[in-house]
Amino acid sequence: MRIIPKKAKKSPASKPSKQPPRAAGQLCASRYIHRTTYYDEDSYSISAQNATGPFDILAHHHNFLTLLNPGDLVIKPVNGVQEQKIRISGGLMHVKADKVTVFLDI
Residue 14 and which of 4, 28, 31, 50 are 20 to 30 A apart at CA? Predict the structure, then answer.
């Protein structure tokens, strides 16, 4: 999953790294804030809220694009670390081929 603030440009650190294939039921997740990688881990799920209510993104989700409402973005990582909650004031989420990108403050 990638989270990118408004007007941020990709830096060399934001290039996708070559990672081994993910196991079934896993998503690629990255977070970027101020042109730096903020989160780049495989995850089981990402939860957020849009105009129709709360939703979850899991592996093999259909291609998806939505505006996010203010609230918590919740990431459940694969590595056994406690879930991470990120307070957001809104944004845009794009899901395609088990990759999630979130643009904040748009």
Answer: 50
- Indicate yes or no: pTM above 0.85: no
Output the CA torsion sign for 51, 84, 8, 26. negative
Non-local CB neighbours of 20 within 8 Å, separated by 6+ positions? none
Dist. CA 67–CA 74, nearest whole Å: 16
Q: How far is the C-alpha of 91 from the C-alpha of 103, rounded, in Å?
A: 5
CB-CB contact of 57 with 27 (8 Å)? yes
C-alpha–C-alpha distance, residues 86 and 92, integer Å = 14
How many Å apart are CA 14 and CA 33, to the nearest integer?
Answer: 11
